[in-house]
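At this stage, I put together one protein's amino acid sequence and its backbone structure tokens, which the following lines show:
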Amino acid sequence: MRPTSNAQPGAPRWIERRALLAFFGLTYLISWSIWSLEPSLRHGDPVFARSIDTLAPYGPTISALILSALLKPGHLPVHRSWSRIAATLFTLLAAIGILVGPWTEALQSQQPLLTAIPLLLISLLPAYLVWSAWSSQRGIRELMASLRAWRIPPVWYGVALLLFPLASLAGLLLLPLLGQSIPALPRQETWPALGLMLLNVFVATAFYGGPFGEEAGWRGFALPRLQARYSPLVASVILGLLWGFWHFPLHFRGMYDASFGAGIGGLVLRMAGNVTLAIVFTWLYNRSHGNLLLMVLLHTVINNTFGFWLPVHVGLYVIIGVLVVVLVYVDQMGKQHAEIGATVLPVPAISERRIQ
């Protein structure tokens, strides 16, 4: 079953027919181009190179914003909203606080004015994404609106924030049964220093470790279109493979050697891990009616939990594997939504009334 066209008159027909191909192509072009520049720029000015590199994870979301605007042109009324101003201002101040160190480095770099340009962009990007959730541009608002849909049942916040930490802890308890010793916790700091560190790292990861830059693309733009053609399971596998492959330039730079291992083994583990995680993301996406805020929170928790809050271990892999099998079976993710009725909740268009 192919999705019905949502493109409005004036949108390029090839984009209308090949929206997914255009999205993945543009995403890879943006991110891989930036990542390929970093090694050469590093020799001239490492501070500038790091600033440019921080823009790369925003490739999926930037691509989704561009294509959404092209596919659904037109304008919607925007009412004065103090929530919009407060949320955007809070995000901007949080980003500035996270980037105090990089801004200090930029002033001491060899080319301070040049380095300030990408830093200014990454300082403003998270706030812009929050602001765009109320955008007057039809396509952008429909893509980003659920980023402000915070009035949802608390159980979904619990799933997004606690599912993987609890899975890691359960895996630790499983290790003795697997004949392995329990590893030491990665963090040895004491309270309140540990609490402040976790909060700082959580916000930094959300803004610049992938979640804000990726989720509007992978889950907001690509996943609904994939699920219009395939079952949730097949859509997850396709997206997981493309999501994993997108990280390959960072593997070739050795950034993931410590967590995934070097060489072919590390790449295989990356692909398997992203496919597995994509299934969990799809399950929560469908159960929460396509809530983008939850996708950002889940992504942030995963990035922080594995290796920072809690150790990575064999027991964790076993627990996640069992979890995925249960989710696929219980929600019948191998079937199309229309065939399984209400077992998997549909993903309706989010109305303005629901997210106020």
